[in-house]
Specification:
Arc Repressor Mutant, subunit A, single chain, about 5% strand, mainly alpha
Length: about 140
């Protein structure tokens, strides 16, 4: 499924999206603390997400990371593609290199259905859709 790194990136993006003040641009340490993640890992992830135009950053004493209203409309798959790529949706569930519909692994058909559901979820849910529940306290980013 999703790598731990990718899950961390999604949590970081949701955290940024849940910040309502446009002048509030948290730094790496604050984001890492808020999502209970390693600061070094979060820093690398945020750099990747900035390069992929999923989020933005400003350097300097009043700098930090933020997400625009247009970026909040991006589907979650954008974050997944930036961090893990799309192999999750094409790879064999057992990791076989030659698995296909003509040469299936034992779980091929069932796993195909699960992958389709996950891909649909990540393509239809937008960043903004997930941050609302966090902002209202109905969902959490740390457990």
């Amino acid at each position: 499924m999703l790598s731990l790194t990718c899950k961390t990136a999604i949590k970081a993006v949701i955290y940024l999206s849940s910040r309502t003040d446009p002048e509030d641009r948290p730094g790496i340490r604050e984001i890492a603390t808020a999502i209970n993640a390693n600061e070094h890992t979060v820093g690398k992830l945020l750099q990747t997400l900035v390069k992929q135009n999923v989020i933005n950053s400003i350097k300097g004493p009043s700098g930090g990371f933020y997400i625009s209203s247009e970026q909040q409309k991006l589907p979650i798959i954008t974050v997944i593609e930036a961090i893990d790529g799309t192999a999750l949706f094409t790879a064999c569930g057992l990791g076989l290199s030659k698995c296909s519909s003509t040469h299936p692994c034992p779980i091929h058909n069932d796993y195909q259905e699960g992958k389709k559901l996950l891909e649909k979820l990540f393509r239809t849910k937008r960043i903004i859709d997930l941050c609302g529940a966090v902002s209202s306290g109905a969902a959490y980013l740390i457990g």
